[in-house]
Design a protein that fits this description.
It contains 25 helices and 29 strands. It starts with a helix and ends with a strand.
């Protein structure tokens, strides 16, 4: 028998498609299972082996759930707006629509070639008008509820992509898309007020089944801290500088303050600042630096002391100088900080450089050498002197601040509002009209979608403006409120928009009246299990949790959290153990592997190669090993008989339990190893019972569905193995019939004997003394006592 994988795989993919076998049924009486994978960006390069691993995890779970009698929703779609398609379109002078459609078709064919059991009736594409109509609808709801707003600020701007980037998209001072250096640019941009949902996002983590490392990453990203807001009055002025600090207990140690170069107080008091020329020169230098460069901890400390302005320490009454320095940002906190150089190393280094006073207020360390950042007894702190507990010191200081009206308890977050805009063509148009009379007005809901105009020239502008700004027919419009002349918003939404709610659209992808039918949402939500990459557990997951919680708050969805459970796969590394990249020449094309060995071999190897959550290097020898395994599975057919083989029941039922449990724990490699061991047992037996072989095929089916369907059909099975009943183990058949136990002589281990579980004491002793080693020891001696615990120990007391 020859295992012709190419013929078998194409045959069953067609049969599954013709039968629409994997289509989910809305509002079924069956228990539901909603398994979600991160939908791909359809690049021109097509799928890579990382996609196979990302989808295979829940592919196996979804196939098992169907066999367990669940109504399974396992959908796929395409996150297709964004810079990569547009940049490629500009490079090749091809419209992004054409590029995107071609890429989606290529991706779809490749996924079908792998035999993934996606529900192809529910495919979504974020760039289609019937989809982004509802993305715009959600944006308008955010706008109406004060959660979408415009503000002028310094933004991260990529001169290469000619687009404004969020902090998340420009980490390390580099553009996420093209990796060019990012610069700071003053611009009025759109924001989503995600900070309003910070506490809800943190609280929601208590209600979900996420691994601890994912929860911790989200908590760190949101970065909630408790402390105090403190007002430092400007000397000889009525105005105060407001700062936020997590260590108000150190206020007596404040010897100077630092404000952002962009702080409005500088311009307000420019007339009395004696060194404005020096300050303006420094401001110009700061404007050339990215935010990353400005806040980098290990960089050289720079700044300018403001000559003409002083502040007053609110608790000591001492005057303290003001500096401007680039490491203070207007977008973080209040744009001003208090400096406690004795107990903060950055402040310490700054004070040393500029000759400012260093006053210790916590006993410990040697401030002649470095800042002391530990805890200890409070000193030089008036009413706090003698306190040794940081918690009590902070509480006492806040109590005094509030009593005197110079500060109050406060909370801050590291997370900033979400910069929600792109100055590019290939994105969802933001449905806002700017009216000189009415201000910003939302496009009426009945006019959605606000369509992306069809254009020939979609190159970005040179001034940071969207190419839509050049299209008069799009820009010029009438105000929906007053009917007067108005201008459309020309920024488009970032790529994150479409992925912030796509899991809801899968539930009802063709609905023209709502983003999804409420009854269908009640049936399917929440997502039962979401798998994806660790790189998306902060930005994408936090953004989508924010949108979903907002939709819950306004009554659109029925659950506060979108994902009940989340897991993550590890990377597949190149054969050289490094991350795959074209430049290194270590990229493995999944289609090449499937053509050479078969999709089932690729699927099996991907999940057998190592721990699912770990990064593992590609190994061609192991791929061939998985192909040999499937060849052997195919050949076992030749020794199948109607009669079950009693000796195979025990390992078979152990395998049912082990494979079933391992799939739930994502221990796919050990599940496959168990099946390999069971196959060894089958090969060692003279024959294999048909029922036993079918059970084996069912256990293997989620991993290698094509070959198992073929063998099921060859055995005369009716319908599809993929939706047959999942095996259930029989505990009575898992009990070993024999067991090896230690034999002791006078309490000392000497040998081991294999006994049947029902052997009585007399039989056990007879088998033990028949062992050559035991026979030599007991020769000429009497057994005066026997201690026998069946299945555990046999101790012979001899004299």
């Amino acid at each position: 028998m020859k295992y012709d994988f190419a013929k078998i795989e194409s045959k069953w993919q067609k049969k599954w498609a013709d039968a629409d076998l994997f289509a989910a049924k809305d509002n079924s009486d069956k228990p539901k299972f909603y398994g979600l994978v991160e939908f791909p960006y359809p690049s021109g390069a097509g799928m890579h082996v990382g996609h196979i691993k990302a989808y295979s995890g829940l592919e196996v779970v979804s196939r098992k759930r169907r066999m367990q009698g669940y109504n399974v929703l396992f959908p796929i779609g395409f996150d297709a707006f964004g810079l990569p398609a547009e940049n490629y379109a500009i490079k090749t002078n091809t419209h992004p629509r054409i590029v995107t459609d071609q890429n989606i078709e290529r991706f779809s064919n490749q996924m079908k070639r792998m035999g993934f059991s996606f529900d192809w009736d529910r495919v979504i594409d974020t760039t289609q008008e019937d989809y982004y109509k509802w993305t715009q609808w959600i944006f308008l709801k955010l706008f109406e509820n004060g959660l979408a707003y415009r503000d002028k600020t310094l933004v991260n701007y990529c001169p290469s992509c000619k687009v404004v980037l969020s902090n998340e998209d420009s980490q390390g001072g580099k553009c996420d898309i093209c990796h060019s250096d990012v610069i700071q640019k003053s611009k009025e941009v759109w924001y989503l007020r995600i900070t309003k949902y910070a506490d809800k996002l943190l609280e929601g983590l208590n209600e979900v089944n996420y691994p601890d490392n994912i929860k911790q990453q989200q908590q760190h990203w949101i970065g909630k801290s408790t402390g105090a807001f403190v007002n430092f009055k400007l000397d000889n002025e009525q105005e105060s500088l407001r700062v936020y600090t997590t260590r108000p207990d150190t206020l007596f140690g404040v010897t100077f303050m630092v404000i952002a170069p962009e702080h409005p107080l500088i311009d307000k008091y420019a007339d009395q600042i004696k060194n404005m020329d020096e300050i303006e020169a420094y401001r110009e230098e700061c404007a050339k630096k990215s935010e990353f460069e400005r806040i980098e901890i290990n960089k050289d400390k720079t700044g300018v002391k403001i000559d003409g302005l002083m502040a007053i320490n609110p608790v000591s009454g001492k005057k303290v100088p003001l500096f401007i320095a680039d490491y203070v940002m207007m977008g973080y906190g209040t744009g001003a900080i208090m400096a406690v150089p004795a107990h903060d190393q950055r402040d310490y280094d700054f004070a040393r450089k500029f000759g400012e006073e260093i006053i210790p207020v916590i006993k410990g360390g040697d401030i002649d050498k470095e800042a002391y950042t530990g805890d200890g007894e409070m000193i030089n702190s008036d009413f706090l002197n003698g306190y040794t507990n940081k918690k009590d010191s902070i509480e006492k200081m806040i109590e005094v601040l509030e009593e005197k009206g110079i500060g109050e308890k406060g909370v801050q977050y590291k997370m900033k509002d979400w910069a929600f805009n792109r100055q590019r063509y290939w994105g969802e148009p933001i449905p806002i009209v700017h009216c000189p009379k009415c201000g910003m007005v939302g496009v009426p809901y009945e006019e959605l979608p606000l369509r992306l105009p069809k254009v020939e020239h979609f190159q970005p502008g040179e001034d940071g403006e969207s190419p839509l700004a050049k299209i008069d027919s799009f820009v010029n419009c009438k105000c929906p409120k007053c009917g007067g002349d108005a201008k459309r918003e020309t920024d488009t939404m970032p790529q994150w928009a479409g992925s912030s709610w796509y899991f809801l659209r899968y539930i009802d992808p063709h609905n023209t009246e709502a983003l999804a039918d409420p009854e269908k949402l009640k049936y399917w939500m929440p997502v039962d299990w979401y798998n994806g990459g660790m790189e998306h557990v902060t930005r994408h997951m936090i953004y989508s949790r924010f949108w979903h919680r907002f939709l819950y708050d306004i009554g659109v969805v029925n659950t506060p959290e979108p994902y009940a459970k989340r897991s993550a796969q590890g990377l597949i590394l190149g054969p050289d153990g490094t991350k795959m990249s074209k430049s290194k020449g270590n990229v493995v094309d999944p289609l090449d592997v499937a053509d050479k060995y078969g999709a089932d071999t690729l699927r099996t190897y991907i999940l057998f190669m190592g721990d699912y959550g770990a990064s593992t290097p590609w190994n061609e020898n192991s791929v061939r090993g998985c192909k040999r395994f499937l060849d052997r599975v195919y050949r076992i057919f030749e020794k199948v008989t109607e009669e079950n083989v009693h000796s195979l029941d025990n390992p078979l039922h152990k395998a049912i339990k082990k494979v079933s449990d391992d799939i739930e724990d994502m221990k796919y490699n050990t599940a496959i190893a168990t099946l390999m061991a069971l196959l060894n047992d089958f090969e060692s037996a003279p024959t294999v019972g048909k029922e036993q072989y079918v059970t084996f095929l069912k256990l293997l089916s989620p991993f290698a569905p094509h070959i198992t369907e073929e063998l099921w059909e060859m055995l005369g099975g009716e319908g599809f193995l993929s939706v047959s009943e999942w095996p259930v183990y029989d505990e009575s058949k898992m009990v070993d019939e024999t067991v090896e136990i230690g034999v002791q002589i006078n309490g000392k281990p000497k040998d081991a004997v294999e006994l049947s579980l029902d052997d009585d004491e007399e039989t056990a002793v007879a088998k033990a003394v028949a062992l050559p080693k035991i026979a030599n020891i007991t020769a000429g001696k009497n057994i005066v006592k026997v201690i026998y615990k069946p299945g555990k120990i046999l101790n012979l007391i001899v004299k």
